[in-house]
Amino acid sequence: MKIREEMTLLMEEYETSGQTQKLFSESKGIGFHKFNYWYRKLQREAAAPGGFHKIESRVPRPVRDCRAELVYPNGVVLRLDSLDPELVSRLIRLY
């Protein structure tokens, strides 16, 4: 069994155990830091499958006829045809 499969099964078991991460990882003979790494990793992946984050805007009327370009340090470029201040703020914090 691959490590990902093993850790996924352990995380499912942990969720129903009622124990703290520290106690659970010790009972399974896994280092706490390794367990916590996998826990956070699998939680992030479950929240955003495929590495994408769903962002919904709560502002009813975005500014029209405006173009903007958001460039992240890793080279990703987002081109926006209309501006929603809250959406832009969330996209900036996403990186």
UniProtKB/TrEMBL annotation:
Query: Domain of life, per the record?
Result: Bacteria
Under what name is this protein listed? Transposase
* The organism of origin for this protein: Cyclobacterium lianum
